[in-house]
Amino acid sequence: MGVVEADMRAALDQPLLSVTGLTKRYGARIGCSDVSFDLFPGEVMGIVGESGSGKSTLLSCLAGHLVPDEGQVTYSGRDVLAMAETERRRLSRTEWAYVHQNPRDGLRMGVSAGGNVGERLMAVGARHYGEIRGAAADWLGRVEIAADRIDDRPSAFSGGMQQRLQIARNLVTGPRLVFMDEPTGGLDVSVQARLLDLLRGLVRDMGLSVIIVTHDLAVVRLLADRLMVMKGGRVVEQGLTDQVLDDPQDAYTQLLVSSVLQV
Ligand SMILES: Nc1ncnc2c1ncn2[C@@H]1O[C@H](COP(=O)(O)OP(=O)(O)OP(=O)(O)O)[C@@H](O)[C@H]1O
Question: Which residues does the UniProt record annotate as the domain ABC transporter (predicted)?
């Protein structure tokens, strides 16, 4: 084995994100409690659980939108919670991305579709107008938005198109770690299926590491390598997605899986 290959193997053996004992309280109420897991490069982890189980709180703590009360988060060997705000912001613009459930929260509605994608490149230093527009056009194509819509504002787009635009805006800078909060929530079933297919292709092609929060087990079945089930702020079960869904060990997971099968 060559030195470069050995180095790459060693890097892949290290978790990209390592979380230990993460706890967030809202006064006396528990948001999430004692959450621990490792996420490896190129891995997709799904977080499922009923409403109020702590999924969004956990994702917000991981992405740096909320400060946890206890625990450790290490990204690529760096202590995220000890980072200066400027450094964490830089990570959020470069190596991380965050896809919101509501595209309006992740897009600038008053800026054209091309501008929405292009300004992310400018935020990481791109200056050449022709190249920025070229990259934006390329990314609109990758998320199946017609080239002649590049100058339209997102408010003129359907919900599914807005979500695809939000994904393009997030991925244009080539992040390594993407946080997704119910990315298919609020969309029609047929639109969801198309979006999921697109997401799956992008995740695979770009080798992305993803943490995806959803209440939809079909979404994790399709996208996630590993699955974490939450209830009352705690992780009740985690493991390989197929294993957890086909042979759930925890009583709550069994209920969750069987309730979906009965629908
Ligand atoms: N800003 C807040 N102030 C007080 N309590 C909060 C706040 N945000 C969340 N909580 C509480 O923390 C717990 C976890 O909520 P969280 O929103 O993380 O769950 P969730 O699994 O994401 O739910 P949903 O699927 O409905 O978004 C709940 O008991 C909730 O009431």
Answer: 17-257
